[in-house]
Amino acid sequence: MRLEYGRTGIDLPIPADELAGRLLEPREVKGLMDVEKKVEESLCQPIDSPPLTEVLQGKKTALILTVNHTRPSPSQLIRPIARVGDQLGIKITICIASGRHRQMSAEEIDAHLGKDLTSRYKVIHHDPFDQSAHMEVGATLRGTPVTVNRAIFDHDFIIGTGIIEPSYLCGFTGGRKILMPGIAFHRSIDWNHYLLLEKGARPGVLDGNPLSEDAEEFARKLPFHWITYAVAGAEDQFVEIVSGNPYTAHRQGCEISSRIYTVSHREADIVISSAGGYPYDIDLVQGKKAVVPARDTVKPGGSIILLAACQEGWGAEPTFKEWVKKYSPQEVVRRVMDRGQFTLGAHGANMLAKPIVEKDARVIVVTSPEMAADLKGTYVDSATSLEEALERARRKVKNRPCYLVLRKSRRLIVKNQGV
Questions:
Q1: 27 in a structural domain
Q2: 206, 240, 260 — which closes off a domain?
Q3: Most exposed: 78, 122, 194, 222, by fewest CB within 10 Å?
Q4: In this predicted model, what pLDDT tens digit does every residue of 112-123 receive, in sequence order?
Q5: pLDDT digits (tens, 9 = 90+) for 134-193
Q6: Radius of gyration of the chain measured on its C-alpha atoms
Q7: Residue span of the structural domain in which 81 resides
Q8: Beta-carbon contacts of residue 103 (< 8 Å; ≥ 6 apart)
Q9: Contact, 253 vs 231, CB < 8 A?
Q10: How many of the other CB atoms lie within 10 Å of CB of 387?
């Protein structure tokens, strides 16, 4: 069996008879044959909204918010919308709503969106640390400051585009998430993400998920008029398009996504978890997401092996690296509960510490030699080959180990999860 790892993949050196029935992965679904045609149809027959041509009447400017390079290219979603805007004489701006992810280079933006879009329309990139670029317009009931990129107030019509997939934080990506964290100020993002420490913040959960509910309240306080989203399959293929009302259309997309990614709960001594290869393991900020379903399925005293090539190292959260290197897992779990110390980077360190503290599990990252060297001496083990990681994991098990392999694990929704 070959698992996703970086751009090349990695072979699993375990006999097939030891893996029988021990694989959890998303359901196979066919991609759309003509994505842009399906988008055009959705613009004419949207969910809980008049057609796009009607709601754009009288508008002079439109801002299209979209995802960055850690997600599939949204160009096939944006082009049909832009054509409608052009026909109506509307000036269009595209905004890379990247949350706290790093800034993309001009070359990366061209590759991500396509030069046909970047050469025709103005493209801006959200910077969550540029205080002068933000405006505060209140707070949510949970206290999150509604501080966002002021560009949202400089346009007549706001459109969200991207993909819908399960999210370990917000239940599902898409919709309100393009505003929070997409174009939010860094302190607002941290305040919202602190809620993931509360009960209910789980993959595949919208209702009762405090982080998701806070993000939706955040979005409802802002101009947000339309979405066009693709439900993503396991191979990043677009399997369905939802357009229209930012909230009801998003819900329908989430229901479709849930049917693709929900799997039955199992447990094992050694859980091998692949986030999905590049770009989902481009750095440890992204690759660490594979620990969530692994934490739910590893037996107490077992081992989690994360496959994360980390081509770009740690990622854009300096606190993440600082906490993993500086503190013990027990200290991380204690410190992260202090809102004054909480940041998105601290949360990342907590994700890797929780299975160690809660289940006495060993966490081993199979990664690049450079990343493995940087993790040396921390509470996260590292190895440069899967064989090496398996050898270490087997030492922790007294009898013959039971294995579980998680493919595309950053998107899996495990049924009957513990809280």
A1: no
A2: 260
A3: 122
A4: 999 999 999 999
A5: 999 999 999 999 999 999 999 999 999 999 999 988 999 999 999 999 999 999 999 999
A6: 21
A7: 35-260
A8: 125, 127
A9: yes
A10: 12
